[in-house]
Amino acid sequence: MSVRVERGKNVWTVPDEAAGSRLDKFLAATERLGSRGGAADALARGKVFVNGTEARPSDGSRTLRAGDAVRVWMDRPGSARRPGGGTAGELEILYEDDALIVVNKPAGLLAVPLQQRPDASSAYGYIEDHLRSRTRRRPLVVHRIDRDTSGLVVFAKNTRVQEQLKAQFERREPERVYWAVVSGHPRPPQGSWRDELAWDVKALVQTRAHPRDPRKKEAISHYRVLETFRSAALVEVRLETGKRNQIRIQARLHGHPIVGERLYVDAAGLPRSSSHGSARPALRTIDCARQALHAHRLSFRHPVDGRPLTFEAPLPRDLEDLLTRLRARPSATGARGAPSRPASRT
């Protein structure tokens, strides 16, 4: 392993024996930053670079390759990446004003604390610390995404804003677009998934509801295939309704479970016909440490002045690496490839 210091920068070249390590674990080694906390702080403050490119907080799970150059710019001042943005713990702040805050949540981090896991880190907790350092406000929950789903989440800063944003979601006004890698090839390549779902309060999962089940609620998603591979596809899913785990359960019910899915592999109510069984081999052969689901785009009206806001979060490193591996397989086809680093705000 080679180490050198350049004007406030610690520089390490990843040796063969460290190939495959996560970036955050590599940085946390005793001979480098010495702790996971130090690694997380360096990533949050924009001090980490891999092969000359600044690493995002969500890149902590990035897999390193032999020969990669990892630098920590110890003396780099500040942490903001763009006007109105910055970081809060492991979160990239895409937008913040007096009314609300929009963040890019990495996979593996809870959106809000769970009663059964009070000590687990969450996006809510990081934002609470971020606000406490400057004001007495506390974040207020507007919506959520799953722990192992990455991407966009918005929080309110006062109850009036929270109520107005929640009302928009209840009226199905915001545009919520996800990218997912699913097993098999959805047919037709563009369409809608419509199901009646019921939340199982004991198992904590969504199930296909019986027609007479009083708990049943309508779930509607609109999908479009962006790219196909030998045994999988990259799809864009736009939520019309927003039920818990909606995309995950609907993808499974319609025969194309999300790659890396653990909870809804054998969802209740799944038809056992051959048209749905073809997805099973792909689940076993495509490796992904979490469900390949990313909250890519979020659009809504500002609750104070009504102006339209649109945010996009680029695919995180682990999903970019997954697509690279799928494209390297024979017989990959598609209308277009997904942009690797889209990012915009209006």
Description of the structure:
With 346 residues, the chain is of the alpha+beta class. It has three domains: 2-73, Structural Genomics Hypothetical 15.5 Kd Protein In mrcA-pckA Intergenic Region, Chain A; 81-171, Pseudouridine synthase; 173-346, Pseudouridine synthase (2-Layer Sandwich). The protein is built from eight helices and 17 strands. It has helices spanning 23-28, 36-44, 123-132, 159-170, 246-253, 274-277, 280-285, 317-327; strands spanning 2-6, 9-13, 48-50, 53-54, 69-73, 86-88, 91-96, 100-105, 140-141, 150-156, 175-183, 190-200, 205-208, 217-228, 232-239, 293-301, 308-312. Strands 6, 7, 8, 9, 10, 11, 12, 13, 14, 15, 16 and 17 form a twelve-stranded mixed sheet that branches. Strand 9 and strand 10 (150-156) form a beta hairpin.
Nutshell version of this structure?
19% of the residues lie in helices and 29% in strands. It has 346 residues and is an alpha+beta fold.
Architecture blueprint of SSEs:
Layout: E1 2-6, E2 9-13, H1 23-28, H2 36-44, E3 48-50, E4 53-54, E5 69-73, E6 86-88, E7 91-96, E8 100-105, H3 123-132, E9 140-141, E10 150-156, H4 159-170, E11 175-183, E12 190-200, E13 205-208, E14 217-228, E15 232-239, H5 246-253, H6 274-277, H7 280-285, E16 293-301, E17 308-312, H8 317-327
Parallel strand pairs: 10-16
Antiparallel strand pairs: 1-2, 2-5, 3-4, 3-5, 6-7, 7-8, 8-10, 9-10, 11-15, 11-16, 12-13, 12-14, 14-15, 16-17
